[in-house]
Structure formats: structure tokens, C-alpha cells
Amino acid sequence: MAVTGKQIKTDYIINSRPWWKFSQRQSMAYLMVLPSILVIVLVVFLPISQTIWLSLNDYDKRIQQQPDFIGLQNYIDSFTKESLRTRLLDAFGFTTGFALISVGLEFVFGMGVALVLNQQFRGRALVRAVVLIPWSLTTVVVARMWGLIYNSEYGVLNSILKSLGLIDKDILWTANKGITFWAVTFADVWKSTPFVALILLSGLQLISGDLYEAARVDGATWLQSFWHITLPGLRPTILVALLFRTIDASRIFDMVFVLTEGGFGTESLNYYTYQELFRKQNFGFGSSLAVITFCYIMIIAIIYIKVLGNREDQQR
Question: Which ranges does the record mark as transmembrane (predicted)?
Fold first, then answer.
């Protein structure tokens, strides 16, 4: 029997309901996720909203008890007042440079480690467990350990370099503006390279061995196989690894706090925010720095997600 347009319209009117009226199944689904939504609101959105509100106020706890609404003045001061702008730009520069260099080195070293661990050899499981030890340690412990290694008086690094004849006097690794950046970066690379290697290793194990076998039959070299099989196969995994590590590196705080306390050109955005919020108790201006840092990291995440989305669309 043919269905007329009038009958379809009548069925649609009968079966449709307003958006605020849910079916029993929909109501049950919303009730089941409601606890999670409430937790997210309390843990994430409520503190963010409070921080944004405080950033719109002049609220120096040392001299006043109540916040005074000033709108965007804290943000304007951050980028217009000479001293504040210089410090903020220096923090941006260190944070960006640190993120780019540390993540780049971690990717190179992590790729090498992942390629080695992907091979079949005796004791591979033990080697994988040992490689993950730096990543399993907390950042504060790693920073304290490297602080002892870098110590100018009794540090192991200076002793080794002097015994090899590479230096004739102790180097101030964490008290020299030209060297301290690299000291902090290398400590972070040592800790985080296993994380990148672990992610890349998971991607390597998803690439079919038949592709490499076919490439060998065709006479492809190792480098050609790596360029035309490994890298394209790892592309989504690489982007995920870089996304996680870049966001994490942009939030650097504890490594700087323990090793240098933000001195000698190593003040990151998070450390600058910490100084204003907790050391100076300037909750208004410190909250504006926190919002600026949040926007900075969010932009990085959006760029990576855009790249990931484009790659997925191309694969489809």
C-alpha cells in the first residue's frame, strides 16, 4: 500500500515530542551520567569559573579583604606595563622554547628506543621494564636527583667531565643563564622519553610485518622501509604522543621549582602564576595569568586536534 505525504506528516506529528520531554530510555541514560556530570562541574568548571571571575578583580590579599571589580584591567596590565610585559614575554619564551626542544628530543630518542624494543631479542620484557623506570618516578624526585648530579661542588657530572679532561673547573649547571635552560631540558627529556617510546611502541606493534617482508622482497633498504612504511603507519600515534607531551611540557612547574626556582631565565608561565598567586597572594593578577596560561595551552591543543582531524579525514 502506498504511503501518502499526508500520512507521513500525521505520523511525524504524533511521534515527535518537544526537546525537553525525554523518553523513558533517554531519562534513564541521563540519570546514569548525571553523577559524572556533577563531578566534572564541581572539579573542573567551577574552579575555572571562579578563576575567571577573580581575574576580573583587583584582589591583593595582603592589603585588602574583598575583591574590587576592574574588568579586563589585569589582562591589559599584563601586556602594556613594561615590567609585567617583559616578565610575561620571558615566561612565554622559556615555556615555548622548552616545549619545542624537549618534545623534539623526546620524539627522536623515543623513536629510537621504540624501534629497538620492537625487535625480538632475549630479555626484551626486562629491558622494557627498565626503560620505563624514569617515567614511573615523580617529577620532584627526578628533579632532586638531577639537582644532585648538577651540583657544582660534589655533583657527579662535573666529576666525570673533569676526569675525562673535558673541563678544568666546576660548571654551575643550574646557576648559569646560558646553561641552565639546557640542564632543565635534559632532565625533562630523561624523564619523559620513555613515555613517548611507550606510545610509539604501541603504534609499531600495529603495523603488519607483511608490509616489511614485501618491502624486503622488492629490495627496499631499511631507511626506505622506515620512511614509506613505519612513519606513515605511525602518523596517528606520533600526533597523539606529540599532543600529550607538548601540553604537558607547556605546563612545566615542578622541574623548574626544584632545580632553579625560576631563576636564570627558566621562569615558566606556571611558575610565574604560582609566584603571583601563592607567594605574593595577588589573587586577581595571578588568576589572570592562570587564564592566560589556560588559553595558551588550549590553543596548542586545538592546533594538534585540528591536525589530527585533518589526518583522519584524509584517511577516510
Answer: 27-48, 91-117, 129-149, 283-307
| Residue where the block lists cell 553523577 | 35
Separation between Cα atoms, residue 226 and residue 300, nearest integer Å: 28
Task: Fill in the DSSP letter of residue 282.
Answer: B
Look at the domain 93-315 and name its fold.
Answer: MetI-like fold (1.10.3720)
Any idea where the domains of the chain sit in the sequence? 93-315
Question: Mind listing the pLDDT tens digit for each residue in 112-157?
Answer: 999 999 888 888 888 888 998 999 999 999 999 999 999 988 889 9
Under a CB-based contact definition with an 8 Å cutoff, are residues 249 and 103 in contact? yes
Match 620532584 to its residue by C-alpha cell.
Answer: 140
3-state secondary structure of 43: helix
Cell (9 digits) for 270: 606556571
Please give the single-letter amino acid code of residue 112.
G
Backbone φ/ψ region at 269: left (φ over 0), alpha (ψ -120 to 50), beta: alpha
Contacts of 254 (CB under 8 A, 6+ apart): 139, 140, 143
The 8-class DSSP code of residue 277 comes to I
C-alpha cell at 95: 615555556
**Confidence (pTM):** 0.83
- How far, in Å, CA of 57 to CA of 49, rounded? 13
